[in-house]
Design goal:
heterodimer, A: about 600 residues, Glutaredoxin, Rossmann fold, 5 domains, B: about 230 residues, alpha+beta, Ubiquitin-like (UB roll), three-stranded antiparallel beta sheet
Amino acid sequence: MKEKIISIIGAYGKDAGRLMDILTDVQAEFGSVSHEAVAVIAEQLHISEVDVVQTRSFYHFFTCQPVGKYAVYLNNSVVSCMMGMADVADEFEKQLGVKFGERTKDDIASLHYTACIGMSDQEPAALINNVVFTSLTRDKVKKIVSDIKAGKAVADMVNELGDGNNANPLVKAMVKNNIRKAGPVVLEAYTSGAGLTKALGMQPREVIAEIKESNLRGRGGAGFPTGLKWDFCSRETGDKYVLCNADEGEPGTFKDRVLLTERSYMVFEGMAIGGYAIGAKEGILYLRKEYTYLKAFLNNMLQEMRTKNLLGKNILGKGFDFDIRIQLGAGAYVCGEESGLIESCEGKRGEPRNRPPFPAQKGYNSKPTIVNNVETFCSASRILDKGAAWHKALGTDDSSGTKVLSISGDCKTPGIYEIAWGMSIKEMLEMVGAEDVQAVQVAGPSGICLPPSQFDRKIALEDLPTGGSMIVIGKKRDLLKDVVLNFMEFFADESCGSCVTCRSFNMILKNAIEKVVEGHGIKKDIDDMAAWSEIIRKTTRCGLGQTSANPIATTIRNFRELYEARVKDVDFLSTFDMQKSVLESCEVVGRNPEVHN
Amino acid sequence: MSDTVKFTIDGKECQGRKGQNIVDAATDNGVYIPVLCHLRDLVPAGSCRICTVNVSGRKMAACTTPVEEGMVIENNTPELTDIRKAIVEMLFVEGNHFCPSCEKSGNCDLQGLGYKYQMMVPRFPYAFERREVDATTPLIYLERNRCIFCKRCIRMIKDSEGRSIFAFKGRGKTLQINIDKKLAATLSDELAQQAMDICPVGCILKKEIGFKDPIGTRKYDKKPIGADIENNHH
């Protein structure tokens, strides 16, 4: 084992900054990053073992205990649960004879839950050794398990291929694009090189002026003006970096997955344009671990672009050098926060940084860095090709251009829709064929749970901002149990834990909503939860923390009656359940609990 | 261009150096802003959030926010006091803190703040987390029940080659403080003592010596936490 790990570390130049890659390769090779492996890595990189463990233990796809030869990661996020995840999980457990969180005795398979894997339009879905399995049913699980038992290679277990590049030999995935509506900025046809050619014919500051003039704002959800970010960074000196945030982890979002599948050349081109504008030579695309199946395809695309001289040295003969590498994540929602993403790229736990300094001043390796979303870079390519005025004319006054939405949940046609900003929720619901709608979760768990009385509101940065996640929740759903509790479990799991308020409050709030869902809540709990949510919003450092109480805060605001119907109108209700405790202890000693009833 | 900036805290006129963080600048002006993670000569972590103040109406962590000319800071409002008290309560319910049996009692910043904010019964339910004590290294007990994740030890205590002795493990609810067994074996007596001294609670304890200063003679036994800063300038 030692020799193999040493050769892995050697491949990354014995650079502790590449710890993520080293851990990824060790995990893939040995099915774990064991204590022994940690010792070798620490020794070789000349860092302490606790620092290796610190990074390993932050990401849930790195494990200390070995996973099975077939490691099944089933998505247990909201939409997957809505689409029948429980049955699928039950069938896996039955067929393999182990529970989730366990490994079969022969070490052949292990079962794990994981947060949203970006397949909300084709749930329930699972990853098995990085291969995606979508629209799972009990029958499909039976087939998968029989293939596992027969020792079939995971790649060969994929029988049907998806549309577009999903069928490309380098992807070979059953994933479907489900592009329902193409818009003029991102999804309509684009000639590779068009934007970059124009950009390189301009001065860098003219490129920034063009982006500013286009009114492009960050498509990841926060809506920060892209031109301004580039402008700040361009004023710094020395080495700089362009980072692309392809770590969409907000439950319910999957648009970047489709853009990476069908528009990767536009993404990379946008990064090169950004690099030219700010004066950077290097770019990194931070790809979420869940999208590992796209990595070979994306690397090939980079190679093609180098061949066409759209990347590499002296691009298009204009004397501009720029190249891009792909950095894999390892399963941590908070790495979608730009400074958490930078930390992760440096091989550390993905903990968001304090500001100031901002990444534009001090980012990757302490150098000035811009971090933009996949869709933002696509838009930048188009804007350079078609011009700022053309882009500004689309959408609303404050939100120019289009937005690619990932729509899922209780509707007839879940999938990808590129709309002009300004569409109302009502229009959106008609577009996707949704009826009997109880609520729409706008912008994922960190956004708003919107009631029908507000369906006239508009999808726009000035009204309902969104990074693209839209989950339609039908009337048949138990909003508090199926949605709010699931979201709070998600945040409690995904908090980096560094801020007291985010780490501790999310647990406290998760327990509080659980108490209400189980019927032990009292009226005071509702007001307590609302008040505590405010403290989180006001005191937590990063965007994840500040918005993490939103599932509770926005449903108390918009669906208070659901809470009131569930709580008891008393001043005190013991949280200690005698019956339940007796039941548990009876089970331990093997007595019949009936006698205590 | 002058390096000095003028600002106010709760109406009091103050002066500080450009780029200095609000906590340090306030201390220099005799204003106490409570901290648990901040230590003057370390890069601020901004993780305990107890130093939250209002800066032009916005909530900011004072340890990570630099003072600026004309800044209007509020440090003492009923809302901020309630938030700080909530944070102290949160830390008490999250870990397992039994002050009467703790070697750090009287020298503990968390306990000191508990008194300052007059915490009686926390508003949150206790978590009763099970946390493991690590007594395997030669000089230090790691009493994880009391850790508040301030990262002081992570940031400050390094071996002679700059390698970490302490680090986090896990995230969110599984987060814990971890000590490097190999490197801790090389720790000097002096550094082990320093680790214990900077720990704001009783999580890092030096072995073989305890209760050297009797209860009653300790830092916060006679004067409340922050009193030394506030009294400096009156």
